[in-house]
Amino acid sequence: MVTIDEIREARETIADTINETPILSSAQLSKLTGNRMFFKGEHMQRTGAFKIRGATNIVKHVVKKGAAFVTAASSGNHGQAVSYIADKLGIAATIVIPEDATVSKVNAIQAYNGKIEKCGTTSAERLPRAEELAKENNGIYIPPYDDPRIIAGQGTVGLEILQQLDDVDVVVVPIGGGGLISGILTAIKETKPSVKVIGVEPESANDTLLSLQKGEIVGIPETKTIADGLRTSEPGTMTFPIVQKYVDDIVTVSEDEIRQALFFVLERMKQLIEPSSAVAVAAAMFGKLGVKDKNVVCVLSGGNVDVRKLGELV
Ligand SMILES: *Cc1c(COP(=O)(O)O)cnc(C)c1O
């Protein structure tokens, strides 16, 4: 398991690369929910999502060990993060993406000088290809969540929240593969266990909730939720035990609730977030957290949306 010391170390390692993102608030959502609502603004993070934290922590490590080439299998925020940090550290990166990836995502990866390789349409096809590419070229495959350095990097979000808002009661976190929440859980539960941490999944991508209920990792078929960062079909073997040990609750939200939350944040708070972030806001907005009169922080995990498709989203 990842330790609080590894997260503190990660914070130093990534300090020169990442932004300490602000905490926002909303009087309107506070009134609506009966809590004091705050938002950790990782949509304003470098590359547009928290993924740069874990990616920086691990890529800096492998470069120190002599690696000159990294690969990843992601058309989304992890792919952007890995190509960004590889470029910054002066090494090459190839990102394996699906045949049907959107132009805006390909453009973002290429803007950071990442090389693109297209492969299949499912992660089951992409992942082995990215591992193989790394092996063939004496490089390192960078996993999206199931790695101690990734988890420690994502956990720095938790350390920042505790420092920026010392009377926080509840932290609400989106769950995909579980890297973000397991890092935040470690940071928070090993320093201030009285703070509640609640995970949120789309109803159709509730693999972590099902696994928690069953007491072991349960897989589900790949889903089509608009929260494309949360489509993973099962929690990680490293992240799941941390979630099992520490999480206070996991709740789910519908596609319509995700859309309404995204719309609210855009219209009222003037912040552009992606559907994967909106799940946390939706959980608060639609009364799923079961708390009142508390200081609640929703993690706005990223803001990368194809603006041409924004109309369809809201
Ligand atoms: C990756 C991602 C998540 C989920 O993070 P995990 O570590 O896979 O649980 C949530 N939101 C955004 C914006 C992401 O990119």
Summarize the structure in words:
The chain contains 13 helices and 10 strands. The protein is 45% helix and 16% strand. The protein is globular and about 55 Å long. The strands form 2 sheets. A 6-stranded mixed β-sheet has the order 1-2-10-7-8-9, with helices on both faces. A 4-stranded parallel β-sheet has the order 5-4-3-6, with helices on both faces. With 314 residues, the protein is an alpha/beta fold. The model has no long low-confidence stretch (mean pLDDT 96). Helix 3 packs across helix 7, helix 4 runs parallel beside helix 5 and helix 7 crosses helix 8. It folds into 2 domains: 213 residues, Rossmann fold, CATH 3.40.50.1100; 91 residues, Rossmann fold. The structure holds pyridoxal-5'-phosphate.
In short:
With 314 residues, the protein is α/β, with parallel strands linked by helices. 45% of the residues lie in helices and 16% in strands.
Radius of gyration: 18 Å
Helix content: 40-55%
Using the 3D structure, state the CATH architecture of the largest domain: 3-Layer(aba) Sandwich
| Total individual domains | 2
Q: Bin the strand percentage.
A: 15-25%
Which class of secondary structure composition applies to the elements? alpha/beta
CATH topology of the largest domain: Rossmann fold
Hetero groups in this structure are: pyridoxal-5'-phosphate
What's the arrangement of strands in the largest beta sheet? Answer: 1-2-10-7-8-9
Our measurement of the CA-to-CA distance between the termini, rounded to an integer number of angstroms, reads 39 Å
Number of helical segments with 4 or more residues? 13
Q: What is the average per-residue confidence, as pLDDT, rounded to a whole number? A: 96
CATH class of the largest domain: Alpha Beta
Principal-axes shape call: globular
- What is the total tally of β strands? 10
Largest sheet: 6 strands, mixed
Low-pLDDT runs: none
Order of helices and strands: HEHEHEHEHEHEHEHEHHEHHEH
As an assembly, this protein is: single chain
